[in-house]
Amino acid sequence: MCLSKPTVAGDAASGSSASSSCTGMQSNRTCSLRDVCSSAGNGIKHRGNKDSQTKEVEDSLGYKEENAVYKENEAASEVLAHQQKQQEEAEEEYIPQIRWPDLGAQSFLHAGALYGIYLLFYAKLYTFLWVAVTILVSGIGITAGAHRLWSHKSYTASLPLRVLLAFAFSIAGQRDAYTWALDHRIHHKFSETDADPHNAKRGFFFAHVGWLFLTPHPKVIAKRKVIDMSDLEADPVVMFQRKYYIPLFALCSIVLPVMVPWYFWQESLWMSFWINFNMRFCWTLNVAFFVNSVAHMWGRKPYDKNIMPVEAPLVSLVALGEGWHNYHHVFPWDYKTGEFGSYTLNITTGFIDFCARIGLASGRKFVSPDMIKRRAAKCGDGSRFLSDDYAHKDQVWGFGDRDLPREDLAELAKMQN
Ligand SMILES: [Zn+2]
Ligand SMILES: [Zn+2]
């Protein structure tokens, strides 16, 4: 059963994200949706022979086969071929250009943040505490809001919670939730290809911050047009935040954090600006950047060694639980974004669980321990379940073993002619 929509044919990126949606498949090779789903015509009716249970699950997820990106359709194929040709022409000419206003903004933010750190030594205690609170609140807006809720639909949030998260995310000032989620969905679906907005294969600096002030690759622009965002378009909270983003940014990210210390405990406005806007903004920005850079480069890959994302506990500590990135790219629908339930290294999970307890959140999706073990044994780097029985669960003794993967049998049948 292929629950997720497969990617556009021929995109090498789909390997990583696609493989995560094929956990039921029993193949040792890298799981490619194109391989799996196209084999339908060769005897394995993944879509044609849907039983009622599969249909029910697909209906509950809002899955529609006719919307599948891969679906063969002559007219669509022609359009796709045309787009591909245009893309190839554009790629030949693609040389990233510096977007000077964005580079200027990043330079200002980072230089100002250093000054803010210096001023922190002279700030009032309450100002210090206030900056910690706003970092935490805006961080939750990113992790529980833009990321786990709006990008991945890993749980359902009630209207009051969505309003709260949109407010918290506006404090962070990292663009509107719709735009953030769009790029993040592309990042997962086309991870580490030219279509990935912060493709880690282009190096640490590009993945960390360079992507924000360089012109995007044409493939990124193309993919922004095909990703399904209908769920967010139907969310009035997201669309409101998008429509009024500029005033919301000014109010929530600048005026509120800067004015509170000035009004309530007479901190100087000068001091408050550099600490509570500039430094605070820059801190959360860089923490998010670490997930794109560090958590895609250095660490273990217990769940899939064929992709770049890694498990980065230190990133998790500062990013409120977002550093378990190998796991997260394999199971992006898990609201915990990590295997283990410790709240210390995953404050966001604690927040969502608390919201669920008081009735503000529901429908938390997670992965069964069995599914995790199977996946780790099959695709992991061996740092997990090395001596576990699961490491041998999917092995076969030879032709005739009943556990031989169905898709392999189908290919074998073809080859024997
Ligand atoms: Zn994600
Ligand atoms: Zn990532």
Automatic annotation (TrEMBL):
<dbReference type="InterPro" id="IPR015876">
    <property type="entry name" value="Acyl-CoA_DS"/>
</dbReference>
<dbReference type="GO" id="GO:0004768">
    <property type="term" value="F:stearoyl-CoA 9-desaturase activity"/>
</dbReference>
<feature type="region of interest" description="Disordered">
    <location>
        <begin position="1"/>
        <end position="29"/>
    </location>
</feature>
<dbReference type="GO" id="GO:0006636">
    <property type="term" value="P:unsaturated fatty acid biosynthetic process"/>
</dbReference>
<feature type="domain" description="Fatty acid desaturase">
    <location>
        <begin position="129"/>
        <end position="332"/>
    </location>
</feature>
<comment type="similarity">
    <text>Belongs to the fatty acid desaturase type 1 family.</text>
</comment>
<keyword id="KW-0812">Transmembrane</keyword>
<dbReference type="GO" id="GO:0005506">
    <property type="term" value="F:iron ion binding"/>
</dbReference>
<keyword id="KW-0560">Oxidoreductase</keyword>
<keyword id="KW-1133">Transmembrane helix</keyword>
<feature type="transmembrane region" description="Helical">
    <location>
        <begin position="277"/>
        <end position="298"/>
    </location>
</feature>
<feature type="transmembrane region" description="Helical">
    <location>
        <begin position="127"/>
        <end position="146"/>
    </location>
</feature>
<dbReference type="GO" id="GO:0005789">
    <property type="term" value="C:endoplasmic reticulum membrane"/>
</dbReference>
<keyword id="KW-0408">Iron</keyword>
<dbReference type="InterPro" id="IPR005804">
    <property type="entry name" value="FA_desaturase_dom"/>
</dbReference>
<keyword id="KW-0472">Membrane</keyword>
<dbReference type="Pfam" id="PF00487">
    <property type="entry name" value="FA_desaturase"/>
</dbReference>
<keyword id="KW-0444">Lipid biosynthesis</keyword>
<keyword id="KW-0275">Fatty acid biosynthesis</keyword>
<keyword id="KW-0276">Fatty acid metabolism</keyword>
<feature type="compositionally biased region" description="Low complexity">
    <location>
        <begin position="9"/>
        <end position="21"/>
    </location>
</feature>
<protein>
    <submittedName>
        <fullName>Stearoyl-CoA desaturase 5</fullName>
    </submittedName>
</protein>
<feature type="transmembrane region" description="Helical">
    <location>
        <begin position="244"/>
        <end position="265"/>
    </location>
</feature>
<keyword id="KW-0443">Lipid metabolism</keyword>
